[in-house]
Design brief:
This protein is of the alpha/beta class. The chain is 39% helix and 15% strand. It is globular.
């Protein structure tokens, strides 16, 4: 049985999009006859979240650090790392974890033998940094570098310099397989690195077929348009808030739950909150609670808004919103991967470009409120292409071909 080592800073029970792929790979590659062992972090610094309970032991998952003493002081180290990165305008944590914890543990595993391949998952790129060093020491081990977001070219990272570009080129030259998160990222990579095009593939985001994601009974008689998750930077829903201010749809409440920064439209958001048209809960919520809140709303809000109207990513919450099955109001650029998925999902929706006209935005909001809130089932196309078991089967085939 092939043996695969997975390196990922994020992993459940931590609720972050970056925990999705490593979780899928760890569990569903086993159904393909591949044994998996994962090295991840036991602790994550999140200034917006309350202290999280330490993870319980998972089969063949090594949450580091293991010792109680290290788990007591390491959060302060992670906090210092994050503070330094924020001052530099970056958000790539995990290098302390990678250098001091993950790399030594993975080296011990590889030294014992029996590991045929490794999969490093980002964000953050610290897992790729560790895998690169392991690959140089153990060149016969097949290495898949899985990017859930692009690194160079990420529209949310404006501080990528020449050092980052050299680092990415070294990653691309050493990895045996380069897995992009969308077909648009794949196209960008092939143009930038034509010499490595033959080892590039796509592993989309998706959904866990064993997780219950569904519509719950509506929590309010008043119609609720819900967004559960981070709002920051370019993802500020300026067009929507302005439409609500103009249209003043009767009884509609736009609900935001999560780490929120409305930036330049904060005064407007505060005014709408005072009027009862916007509800804001600035707190981290565990995934089960996030899904319950989203599933109790009449409508879902997707904010696929990036600097320059980029089309490189798919918000992970889209896969939850489609499975909930109630109408979706989506702000996403023309020809975006998220928009193309939504068009074939089988779920009622209204789609707007982030730079659309106020008139189109107002009309979409009015049309949304006429849609029936009875949940629909996703299309067969959606189920076939984004089921985590299918994603793992495709990755298993890639491993077998590369081994």
């Amino acid at each position: 049985m092939p043996n695969v080592l997975i390196l990922s800073y994020y992993f459940p029970p931590f609720n972050a999009p970056g925990a999705q792929h490593p979780d899928f790979f760890h569990r569903y590659l086993r159904e393909q006859g591949i044994q998996t062992t994962t090295v991840t972090s036991a602790i994550h610094y999140n200034p917006s979240a309350p202290p999280q309970p330490l993870p319980e032991k998972w089969p063949d998952v090594l949450h580091l650090p293991e010792s109680a003493t290290a788990r007591h002081f390491i959060p302060r180290v992670y906090k210092a790392e994050m503070q330094v990165q924020v001052r530099m305008g970056r958000w790539q944590p995990g290098f302390v974890w990678a250098k001091l914890l993950a790399l030594p543990a993975a080296r011990r595993m590889l030294a014992r033998g029996g590991i045929d391949a490794m999969i490093s998952v980002s964000p953050p790129v610290s897992s790729h940094w560790a895998a690169l060093r392991l690959k140089k020491q153990y060149p016969k081990v097949t290495w898949i570098a899985d990017f859930q977001d692009p690194f160079v070219g990420n529209p949310f990272d404006k501080h990528v310099g020449e050092k980052d570009k050299r680092f990415e080129r070294e990653l691309f030259s050493q990895a045996d397989v380069l897995s992009a998160n969308t077909d648009t990222v794949l196209a960008m990579w092939r143009e930038r690195y034509p010499e490595f095009a033959g080892k590039m593939t796509v592993t989309w985001g998706g959904y866990d077929p064993e997780e219950t994601v569904c519509a719950y009974p509506l929590a309010s008689e008043k119609p609720v348009l819900s967004h559960v998750g981070v709002v920051f930077g370019a993802r500020v829903p300026k067009l929507l808030l302005e439409s609500i201010s103009r249209v003043k749809p009767k009884d509609l409440v736009v609900e935001f739950v999560g780490d929120l920064d409305f930036g330049p439209v904060a005064p407007l958001a505060e005014r709408l909150e005072a009027e009862g048209r916007v509800s804001v809960r600035r707190s981290y919520v565990p995934r089960a609670e996030a899904l319950r809140i989203a599933g109790q709303a009449h409508y879902s809000l997707l904010l696929d808004i990036t600097p320059g109207n980029g089309i490189l990513q798919v918000p992970a919450k889209l896969f939850d919103q489609i499975r909930i099955g109630r109408p979706i109001l989506a702000f996403t650029p023309e020809n975006s991967p998220a928009g193309r998925i939504l068009e074939q999902s089988g779920i009622l929706h209204r789609r707007l470009r982030p730079d659309d006209s106020p008139g189109r935005s107002d009309a979409a909001l009015i049309e949304l409120l006429t849609m029936p809130t009875e949940p629909r089932q996703p299309s067969e196309w959606f189920r076939e292409n984004f089921d985590a078991r299918s994603l793992a089967a495709s990755l298993a085939q890639t491993l077998k071909m590369s081994g």
